Amino acid sequence: MKNFIPITSLSKQIFLALAIGTILLGCSTASPTNLPPTSPTTLPTQSLPTPTIRPTDHPTIRPPASKPVIQTPAWFNDVVLYEIFPRSFNDTNGDGIGDLKGITQKLDYLKNLGVGALWLTPIHPSPSYHGYDITDYFKINPEFGTEEDLIELVNEAHKRDMKIILDFVAGHTSKQHPFFQDAFGNPKSKYAKWYRWLNDTHTKYEHFGTATSLPSLDQDNPDTRAYLMDAAKYWIDKANIDGYRLDFALGPSHDFWKAFRAEIKTFRGSVSDFLLLGEVWTSGLKIAPYYDNEFDATFDFPVYFDLMGSHERAGKSALLGKGSPSAFQSSLKAQTRLYHPGAQSVRFLNNHDTVRAMSQLNDTQRAKLAATLLLTLPGTPMIYYGEEIGMRGDKTDGDKSVREPMDWHASENGAGMTTWNKPAARFNTANDGVSVEEQENNKDSLLEHYRALIALRAKYPTLRAGEFVALPLQGNPKAIAFLRRDENETFIVFLNSETQPVTMSLDAQTIQEAMNGFTDELTGAFIPPPVIDKYALVVSPLSAHLLRVKK
Questions:
Q1: What string of pLDDT tens digits covers the 551 residues of the chain?
Q2: Whose CA, among 1, 135, 396, 475, lies 20 to 30 Å from 163?
Q3: Same domain, 318 and 403
């Protein structure tokens, strides 16, 4: 027979009963269907102060040694990345538009959240609200501030041991860029070879997707290439930034990216210190070549789609039963074969181009499950601004709906609130429970759940760099279980996205390791060791558990 240990409460009485039950239940089996539903426990942040992060080596998960090890920034293994859409984040001059000073003003909030690196979407002059159609790579959009504001942001971030990553757009410029304006319809222009033309008169041209406002650059033209290299080096020299997120990396050639890496890494002075993070929106098989002397890290779109199902339609998440919740484990395994040793991956639940995580999950408890999964996976986790408070946006009215103002205040009025995008039918409204003000210091809130998880990830190097081992779960299609372990620690992660309790069995090796019992790092509870060679845990509906094996 099996012993079933329900993880449902923190009370001493229940855990005393559990300890006794490991002895007395040898002749009977508790049925999970008879357990009362319980609310998933939340993380007590007061007991989890953010510790100093001990640097770790590259993740244990490694591809075959036949591929050469690449030198990548060691600091990127240890941070949580936070994406900011500056226009929507924090406004300091009252014009309704977020600015660089606004980001600087919120560095203490971000440090308290536990993030270690900030990625800013484009901050250069542009005729659009999103900024991906740049008209001058060497200037700051005056709506966001000045060069001095960027320098101040970087300096203040560095004082807090935080990194700043800028968006770099090498695939296209704005249609209003003076170089394109000069070359359009003018084959004799000095910039005629800078773009990819489709006819001899230079009136038809390649562009990004269906957006004719984004004409494609020819990065293999020497002058174009030199211009882009100079622009990238300018901000490294001027502001001492720590990396680039490389937009639409599928556009430029592999030859361009190899030359870009060689130039930028040499210019920085340390090959491994400056981050090159590629947006390669494709399969793992096609991402792999970008680790060959090109990028340090890429966004893990395969795992994103395994978990969320669709970037444009809400309600497709595997945590809702739309697909196998454990499918991501196959993607992780494939990447160990495909990618170079040292390759870094960014794992995420949403970004500025996708349905927001809360709209995908539509439930705070499921959002907590997703956060627990994100922050216990190998790789570098990324949080999209507002994700930590459960902001919504499902793209039914386009990308603006997933780029709404960051909710600082319950009333949606007050210092820092942006107003550039606040239609009456917006997703995030006043007094809806979704704001920093409403969730801060509320132990049951999503914000405090994120804070505590990030603190745990900082506290235990194993959760950042330990080996990932999937645990098979027969008959539990909506449950997830895996190990994170190294020579110092072993953690078992259990997630139940079902609305009913599920039983999760432990394998023989794990049982052997667990002879001293577990501590649930999400609750602080001690779970006694098994007393027989069969051991199982009953996990409550919509709950997650992070069990640290007591050594």
A1: 333 334 433 333 323 223 322 322 222 222 222 322 233 333 333 333 333 454 444 334 444 457 899 999 999 999 999 999 999 999 999 999 999 999 999 999 999 999 999 999 999 999 999 999 999 999 999 999 999 999 999 999 999 999 999 999 999 999 999 999 999 999 999 999 999 999 999 999 999 999 999 999 999 999 999 999 999 999 999 999 999 999 999 999 999 999 999 999 999 777 779 999 999 999 999 999 999 999 999 999 999 999 999 999 999 999 999 999 999 999 999 999 999 999 999 999 999 999 999 999 999 999 999 999 999 999 999 999 999 999 999 998 889 999 999 999 999 999 999 999 999 999 999 999 999 999 999 999 999 999 999 999 999 999 999 999 998 776 677 889 999 999 999 999 999 999 999 888 776 666 677 777 889 999 899 887 766 556 677 889 999 999 998 77
A2: 135
A3: yes
Domain total of the chain: 2
Structure token digits, residue 494: 């259990």
Alpha-carbon gap, residue 158 to 165, rounded angstroms: 12
Catalytically active residues, by annotation: 247, 279
CATH number for the domain harbouring residue 482: 2.60.40.1180
User: Of the residues 434, 456, 484, which one is the last residue of a structural domain?
Assistant: 434
Q: How far is CA 146 from CA 96, 200, 240, in A?
A: 17, 40, 15
Q: Is residue 427 located within the same domain as residue 527?
A: no
Please state, as a whole number, how many other Cβ atoms lie within 10 Å of the Cβ of residue 270.
10
> Same domain, yes or no, for 282 and 404?
yes
Which runs of consecutive H residues, i.e. helices, occur in 382-502?
A: 436-439, 446-459, 462-465
Q: Which domain holds residue 517?
A: 3-44+467-549
At 82, phi and psi to the nearest 5? Answer: -130, 120
Strand partners, 468: 484
Could you please report the per-residue DSSP string of 291-304? GTTT-SEEE-HHHH
